[in-house]
Structures
1.
Amino acid sequence: MAFETIKLEQDGFIGKLTIARPEALNALNSQVLDELDKALDEVSANKELRVLIVTGEGRSFVAGADIKEMASLSPIEGKEFGKKGLGVFRKLEKLEIPTIAAVNGFALGGGCELAMSCDFRIANEKATFGQPEVGLGILPGFGGTQRLQRLVGQGWAKYLIYTARNIKAPKALEIGLVQEVLPVDEFEARVDELANIVANNAPIGVKLAKEAINTGAQVDIESAIKIEENLFGLSFATEDQKAGMQAFVNKGKAEFQNK
Ligand code: CAA
């Protein structure tokens, strides 16, 4: 379907979801969240896609939830708005295919939370991260209090959330919030390269690994190991397992068929 505030594009195995409200630095209002929700359903239904890149148009990734929309919300409306964002971000996090946040600029508040709902984060040198909510009289409401501590530990999460301080990409790299930082002119090419590297690995193997990591992180280690054991076994049911191992034995390289 046609969207007004986001763009969903496909190039072969790779999908690209762009938040496109540059006049508001891609702030997330209800319309953006509703469109993201629909776009994620389209991504889930598209069986050609192997990787999804999430990025922002212009000089911002996402500068947060829309403060102008939130300013006059009642407690009940605030809760509903939070629930909407949390639901969409959880849907993103639970997509079967891997997701890469390509952080091209401001990733503040809901923007940092959007990036954290992706599987990993690649930033350009200009990117800025932060959870400025307590400076607005609220707290992170699209998953920030939960995902930030899981990614960088409680000390850094509390430091960033309580101080409302923004950090630049190199600091985000140092604390493990992002995986790579690139000069602006190399950034897009590197994101595409990484997306292609992931897309050319066995897609079902990648999906099962994502399931094992995400599900295993929510349970005790005994149950988590059992989850890996079962998913590892399941990977042997794929044609790509046969092709991948046969190619190794023959000193070749497999072209995975996603089967
Ligand atoms: N909501 C609504 N509009 C926003 C916005 C936001 N989060 N961020 C930027 N904009 C708008 C600005 O109001 C401005 O619009 P106008 O031209 O109509 O005035 C336009 O985008 C450009 O922004 P600036 O002129 O402010 O650009 P700048 O380069 O001077 O500053 C910035 C950039 C530092 C990112 C600054 O815009 C800013 O501080 N934005 C707010 C960041 C923030 O606090 N985000 C957290 C929101 S709360 C949240 O996300 C809650 C949650 O967890 C769900």
Note: Residues 75-93 form the longest helix (19 residues).
2.
Amino acid sequence: MSQESKGSGNEYVTLQDHSTGKNYDFPLMPGSIGPKVIDVRPLYAQTGHFTYDPGYTSTGSCESKITYIDGEEGILLHRGYPIEELAEQSSFLELCYLLLNGELPTQSERQKFEATITNHTMVHEQLHNLYRGFRRDAHPMAIMCGVVGALSAFYHDSTDINDPRQRMIASHRLIAKIPTIATMAYKYSIGQPFVYPRNDLSYAENFLHMMFSVPAADYKVSPIVSRAMDRIFILHADHEQNASTSTVRMAGSSGANPFACIAAGIASLWGPAHGGANEAVLDMLNEIGSKDRIGEMIERAKDKDDPFRLMGFGHRVYKNHDPRARVLMKSAHEVLGELGIENEPLLEIAMELEKIALEDDYFVQRKLFPNVDFYSGIILKALGFPTSMFTVLFAVARTVGWIAQWKEMIEDPSQKIGRPRQLYTGYTQRPYVAVDKR
Ligand code: SDX
């Protein structure tokens, strides 16, 4: 029986400070699974030293019950449920309920939750005017940062972070409205009219409807495409304390409203080392162009003097395989086959690239495997999305993870404003020099 617990362990780690000869004991805190943590909260008060861990390679920033990743085994659990089973048997909205509430919903809870989300998908009409301020060629992620950050100007009645009811309303509003905001960014960029959501469609169907339908013609959502869409949302929903989630938590730790925090998460996700990688993978595969150029690109990725990296490869945590990449690779074949897009050249190049990279010592030694972004772009391209929308899709899916982690942090009695320290290596104190003396 799986359990949630923070063990009451009474183990300690002893730190010996050779500069003073003193020993210090720090509690070793066990979780329900995964590495234990050394509780260094008293370290500075006791030793006068800070820890030093840029990039947080060995640092736990919080306690969480939402998502667990085992990088060595390639395991990803959401509230204990394996991602492979959720992708196969669940739906994105059911996963949203699970991430927010901690348990899978009963039939009636699921119906109520779906109805709540469905009935919050429209945005305030005034919000439409915000888009007109952007150039038509603005990157949709730039529009997302701006429009989501502005939501707190429209929904004042759900910005009191200390009111549990308002926290849940804000969570529902964000999950419900992010697809509408995202598709409006796309429609604006191609000069087509915004498409209103419809309450008779599922979350994924509605997203596709708002993306691709036009007033001049009927648009029928393909069940193959909507199922693939829902699965892609599931695979991108949450991922422990990644860069954008940590950004949301940091922003939220000061008491900022949830809409502003999610806008901060969107900004962080946009980076090519993070969520921006799916767009960069497609650009890279297009740049490679044919299988016979793969060797040259792999050599470039290994060259320390060349900033080029193999986009879609590597991960801070996964050192075996990214379970999401495996599900996406399987889906890529299914979707392309079902859509009759036989031998898609980019998929062929991607699979050859993966094969060659995984036989190359450089990648094997550094445990660089395809991550979630490697195959997602190929499916998204097959589903008809422009590359500029790839990271937007990631943001649509990750909004539930961000807001669930934000809510968990706000509801954690031990949470404090985030305020890291530093190793200072700048000038020691020196007197000001008048300009005529410099
Ligand atoms: C996501 O954190 C998350 O969970 C993120 C995410 C999520 O769901 O939220 O999973 C989503 O962001 C996936 C990652 C998408 N990014 C990319 O695909 C961009 C390409 N990957 C790299 O930028 C890199 O692998 C990172 C950023 C993903 C991880 O970087 P790390 O953990 O800081 O690793 P590192 O930079 O210290 O690299 C270790 C070594 C270095 O070589 P050495 O100095 O040891 O000789 O591996 C090399 C790096 O040069 N390396 C790569 C490489 N990734 C790492 N070399 C070539 N190509 C790559 N892709």
Note: The radius of gyration is 24 Å.
